[in-house]
Amino acid sequence: MGETVIGVFRATSYDIDAIRRKLERYAESIGGVDKLESADKIVIKINMCDAREPSTGAITHPKFLEAVLKWIRNMNPNSEIFVVESDATRVLADLYVRWFGYLKVIKKYGARWANLSKWPTKTKEFPHLKIFRRMEVPEIFSGAYFITLPKLKTNLLSDITCCLKNQYGCMPIVDKDIYHPTLHRAIAELNVIFRPSLCIVDGIIGMGGAQGPAFGVPIPSRIVIMGEDPVAVDAFAAKYIGFNPKKVKHIKMAAKLGVGSLRYKVVGERVKKVNFENHRWEFMALRLGVKRQTQAWSSYRYSWRR
Amino acid sequence: MVVIRTAVIGAGAIARRGHLPALKLLEKEGLVEIIAIVDIKEDLARRVTKEFDIPKYYTDHNEMLRAEEPDVTIICTPTPTHFGIAKDCIEFSHLLIEKPLCIKLSEALVLRDLAEKNNRIIGEVYNYRYFPSVLKALKRVREGYLGKLVSIQGTYFTHFPVAWTRATWLYHERGVLYDGLPHMIDLMLLIGNGRPLRVSAFGGDMLEDAGFINHASFAVELDNRVFLTGVNSWIVGTSFVFMLELYGTGGFGYLDVRGDFYREYHGTRTVVHDLFYMKDEFINFARSVLSGRFFVGALAHYPILLRQFLMGVEKGEKIPVSIDDSIERLIILEGIVYSIKNKEIADRRVLLEKAEEESLKMG
Prior knowledge:
- Chain A contains ten helices and 13 strands.
- Chain A is of the alpha/beta class and 306 residues long.
- Chain A has one domain (4-278): Rossmann fold, CATH 3.40.50.
- In chain A, strands 1, 2, 3, 4, 7, 8, 9, 10, 11, 12 and 13 form an eleven-stranded mixed beta sheet that branches.
- In chain A, helix 1 (16-30) packs across helix 3 and helix 7 (183-193) runs parallel beside helix 9.
- Chain B has 363 residues and is of the alpha/beta class.
- Chain B folds into two domains: 4-127 and 302-322, NAD(P)-binding Rossmann-like Domain (Rossmann fold, 3-Layer(aba) Sandwich), CATH 3.40.50; 130-297, Dihydrodipicolinate Reductase, domain 2.
- Chain B has twelve helices and 14 strands.
- Chain B has helices at residues 13-28, 42-51, 61-68, 79-89, 105-118, 132-143, 181-192, 271-291, 293-296, 302-315, 323-342, 348-362, and strands at 4-9, 32-38, 56-58, 72-75, 94-97, 122-124, 149-158, 196-204, 215-222, 227-233, 240-248, 251-256, 261-265, 346-347.
- In chain B, strand 9 and strand 10 form a beta hairpin.
- In chain B, helix 1 (13-28) packs across helix 10 and helix 5 runs antiparallel to helix 11 (323-342).
- The longest helix of chain B has 21 residues, at 271-291.
- The mean pLDDT of chain B is 94.
- The A-B interface holds A 52-53, 55-57, 205, 209, 211, 214-220, 281-282, 285-286, 289 and B 143-148, 248-251, 264, 266-268, 270, 272-273, 276.
């Protein structure tokens, strides 16, 4: 795949109109907005990875969602908009959407909330994939213009959590951690199935440190990244956070599977590099800890066999 | 640059250890001129004049004010005398007053009105806010590294201040609250960035018959929904503990003000994190002991505090702690006393109304 264009701009706070104005300005330069203008159905996937308050940087800020909805409604007032997320090991989506203030925003802009774990699905075959050859795909995605609204975060297991990883939450199953042993491959394959048409990264409050994606350090990174290509956006995000995108396995795999390109051109504002407080020792120690935890749990669970 | 003619009232421990050495440094820079010192003990005043090479001393502050007409007067006498002296000085000069500003909230309201009437600036001395660890914690909180701040828990323990001063005026009815606690309240309000609405407290005289508060636990609700809780004591068996725990939605900060060290935890806290912090803390401690910083403590920050205040006065800029900030701090102190005495929650509005009434009576 060739070089794609991504837009980057600064946002010092969650000022809805300021974000909307910048989205308007930079959307033109990355292309694809005409499709959004004419879309009948739009699905927006937010990121709610845990019961964490928006100021922690762990979940898409409801004000960021509001800015995006306002922008979309301005150019496409009649489309049917769904804001989606699914239940997960640590996610009770129907509760969190109310607790953290999304529902009010969704109603304000005439959109609808959909819990993917409770939405009708259709079994689909993907013979060219390894993990998800056969999968229950929520019907909501069919014929929809799909926008992903991830956070800019580090992740103990996958190094970074951004556009590609956000589609992990498109799986309707609750026990999503069963794919953790093959996480990178799973993320890459899920992006073949749920490839977003537009990615807008909420990096205004990011998350750093080794305890992401839920309990890392809130980082005032003050940045928004947008683009049509999730691989390119993630490659930029990884570099910005302090990782080499070519060494982040799921980004590399997604590029290989044809989800997008690792080569990109940046348009927009000059952004300052921010320290995401990624300490190598902390990643190493905690990864070791997680490994031991998995072993200890399974050994305890099956101790009756001995 | 205009040289600010400065007089100091009170030649006790804090003047000799904090203000005068700092003023001498600023005098060298050409920012101030120390014109006189005042103390009711003539021997002490004379001795300090000689020690710090000050041109004149007085035993009566009114006499000094009329004779010298200073630009700025620094009051570092015992707290119960602050109000009376400040009232006399406000007509002649701007004031910098040692913490706590005065004993009662009503006195602070009178001073605020007098300052407004005479177009004077009143500042209060809070020097713990200049510790690098405090500045770091403040920066981290303001920039959002702890997410949204929810609560601050503070501890301030010292032993009875007999080693610091032989004076016994500290053992007035409000006792321990007017020793180091104002420093802790200052940091809590600085970091918490709100105004106190309600105060609740328990404690009092925990000795046989001391007649003053020597131990207190309190809780404060700020208008931005940050909650402060604290313990302040002269009787707990540690000689000097001053720490704040900062609880935010995004993490937990531990600020050891005395040790000048700030730790931050996010997510799971493990011994690995502690070990890394302990290494840094040990290096910091060793450096501060070897350099002597540890022993000088917060006194080392008087030059920066005085510079900020004096520059603020000269250029009409914001001063570190204004009379309005002092009133917020006094609302908490007064609220603690009220709550302990009346065994009920002290409300900001009630405290201010009562103080307004008293201040009107004071004229």
